[in-house]
Write a structure and sequence with these properties.
By secondary structure, the protein is an all-alpha fold. It has 2 domains: 102 residues; 75 residues, Orthogonal Bundle (Arc Repressor Mutant, subunit A), CATH 1.10.10. It is built from 8 helices and no strands. Helix 1 packs antiparallel against helix 2 and helix 2 packs across helix 3. The termini are far apart.
Length: 189
């Protein structure tokens, strides 16, 4: 029932904007556009997306600021502004839900528990230390192959060499990385 009432409110606002388009010609262009469409955009953000009035006003200002950067690229103003406020509202809701999930002291954080975060940090530091012991050529080859997903043929083409050489280089670099790992492990003990 509330959804129907919200839809009727939005449609009524759109009809009133059509009637207000005739009044736009009398005032300065930006002031007239802002005065005409700002109430509609605030109403959409508040009624359709459940955003507070203060935050909705900020979103409306952001939408108009974006429009002012390059108004010539906008072909039809009303659909552009309505689409922009809907996109801004969705983005706001995504950011606020993520922020509340991360910053909530009451609820358990859904993003990561302490153990997995700790393990990921330890793994990243370990990989960084191992790669620091390798030369530039090995770091570059391993990054291109494992991180960027390039094939040996693509790496060979970029280095003006053969895929067979890159295969041997990757084998050599993996062996050096493994040796560096073992050296760090025995150094701990």
């Amino acid at each position: 029932m509330d959804h129907l009432r919200t839809s009727v409110t939005v449609v009524a606002a759109l009809v009133s904007c059509d009637q207000a388009d005739d009044a736009v010609a009398d005032a300065s262009p930006f002031d007239a556009i802002y005065d005409t469409y700002a109430p509609l955009l605030r109403r959409i953000a508040v009624s359709r997306f459940g955003i507070s009035t203060a935050d909705a006003a900020d979103l409306v200002h952001d939408v108009f600021a974006t429009y002012l950067v390059n108004p010539k690229r906008v072909q039809e103003l009303r659909p552009y502004l309505i689409g922009a406020i809907c996109n801004a509202s969705r983005s706001y809701l995504r950011k606020s839900s993520t922020r509340s999930a991360v910053c909530s002291a009451v609820d358990a954080c859904d993003i990561a528990d302490d153990n997995s975060l700790h393990e990921r940090v330890v793994r990243e530091v370990l990989i960084g230390r191992i790669l620091g012991r390798l030369g530039h050529s090995c770091r570059d080859a391993l990054q291109r192959f494992y991180v960027e997903g390039e094939t040996a043929a693509v790496i060979a083409e970029r280095r003006n060499t053969t895929p067979g050489y890159i295969g041997r280089l990757l084998h050599f670099c993996r062996q050096r990385a493994l040796d560096a790992y073992h050296a760090m492990e025995t150094g701990k003990r």
